[in-house]
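Tokens in:
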């Protein structure tokens, strides 16, 4: 049906490569390209069957990307490198007539700030070129946004309160590690909290607001209000929302490590001089922390991510909770990576599949909730991320 180019041979890229390789009726040719080709080769070898071709590319160099796109000629690129590469890869896609999908919005290297404005600004260029750009097609953002769209389509006339709840109840046995790229993860969780209320953003100190929430099959976990990128597009695309918040669980151990890392300056993104050369503290930290891709082997427990929604259906108030639980061990057994990479890579693969099938083909730049959620929900159940709905339950929020 179509040709897929995956950029980024990390934990998420590994899952995309595995899943796409298992769908030959959709992805007839697959290439995995990344900064370090040996990582691509190792993944391709594990998958076997000569399903995956590999290439070396620095995706920050647009001419290099253009050259690769011109030689392989994919129908769509899945960008699971880092958010810094988003605009460069989008530029290369425009130059070569290739559609685009990612799982995290653009972030400039020198500023710990992420927002959609930079990518939304590409709308006319993608539309005029007849190309589709699908933004935020991981789990959160991604499935959480699709859950919201599905709830709006089938269960509510108006959504008023949206709480996205993200619990990782896994134990990787390490004193401190991040579940995806440490640099991006630490930048995300150390910033100020922010949520939407009555038409405006309310700011909080980092981790200032927290409460225990009960997660299915897991139990109670302290959950912290943080800002997460899908809130920006969801309040725009569902204007009836009065309040939108994002909650993530952290252990005391994790928060203590994070506080120390910040206090001693290791989360810094400004260069410092070290032994005659400049280094960026958070980059150095990444180099000494466990590689998230290696956590899977001993990872026990599961993740539980979902949306708790309150709103109106047929004139009556209703509550609704939709979620997926994903086992780290099951994810590892299937793909060699833990559940955080798995829950991101599977939705990215589904998004590209729906694009190739013409179901999610729409020239322009769109967040995932702007597409029909139904075919996506069907594929989640088929491809390893089954979801559960609860109606009129206590959503605790
Ligand atoms: P990793 O750090 O494990 O992998 C990133 C990969 O991208 C690495 O292989 C890296 O290469 C490669 N890369 C980095 N820079 C470049 C470049 N300039 N050119 C080519 N390749 C490059 O990250 P993850 O797999 O954990 O995460 C991937 C993406 O998924 C991130 O953007 C992250 O924010 C996003 N994500 C989204 C989630 C969601 O639910 N929406 C959840 C989790 C992650 P090298 O090996 O040489 O360093």
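Residues out:
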């Amino acid at each position: 049906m179509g040709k897929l180019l995956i950029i980024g041979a990390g934990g998420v890229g590994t899952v995309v490569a595995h899943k796409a390789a298992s769908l030959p009726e959709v992805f007839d040719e697959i290439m995995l390209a990344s900064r370090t080709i040996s990582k691509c080769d190792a993944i391709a070898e594990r998958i076997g069957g000569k399903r995956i071709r590999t290439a070396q590319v620095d995706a920050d160099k647009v001419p290099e990307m253009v050259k690769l796109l011109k030689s392989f000629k994919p129908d769509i690129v899945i960008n699971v490198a880092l958010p810094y590469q988003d605009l460069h890869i989008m530029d290369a896609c425009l130059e070569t007539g290739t559609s685009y999908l990612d799982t995290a919005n653009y972030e400039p290297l020198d500023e710990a700030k992420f927002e959609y404005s930079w990518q939304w600004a590409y709308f006319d260029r993608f539309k005029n070129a007849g190309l589709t750009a699908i933004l935020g097609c991981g789990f959160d953002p991604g499935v959480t946004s699709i859950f919201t769209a599905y709830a709006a389509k089938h269960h509510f006339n108006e959504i008023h309160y949206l709480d996205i709840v993200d619990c990782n109840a896994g134990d990787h046995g390490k004193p401190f590690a991040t579940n995806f790229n440490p640099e991006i993860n630490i930048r995300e969780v150390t910033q100020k909290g922010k949520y939407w209320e009555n038409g405006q953003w309310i700011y909080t100190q980092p981790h200032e607001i927290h409460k225990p929430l009960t997660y299915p099959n897991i139990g109670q976990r302290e959950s912290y209000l943080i800002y997460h990128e899908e809130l920006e597009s969801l309040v725009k695309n569902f204007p009836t929302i009065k309040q939108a918040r994002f909650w993530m669980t952290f252990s005391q151990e994790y928060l203590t490590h994070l506080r120390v890392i910040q206090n001693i300056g290791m989360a810094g993104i400004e260069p410092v001089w070290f032994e005659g050369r400049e280094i960026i503290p958070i980059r150095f930290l990444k180099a000494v922390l466990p590689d998230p891709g290696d956590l899977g082997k001993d990872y026990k427990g599961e993740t539980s991510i979902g949306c708790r929604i309150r709103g109106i259906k047929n004139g009556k108030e209703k509550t609704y909770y939709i979620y997926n639980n994903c086992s780290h061990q099951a994810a590892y057994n299937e793909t060699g990576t833990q559940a955080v990479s798995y829950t991101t890579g599977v939705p990215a693969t589904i998004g590209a599949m729906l694009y190739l099938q013409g179901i999610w083909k729409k020239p322009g730049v769109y967040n995932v909730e702007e597409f029909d959620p139904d075919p996506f929900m069907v594929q989640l159940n088929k491809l390893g991320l089954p979801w559960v709905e609860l109606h009129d339950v206590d959503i605790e929020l």
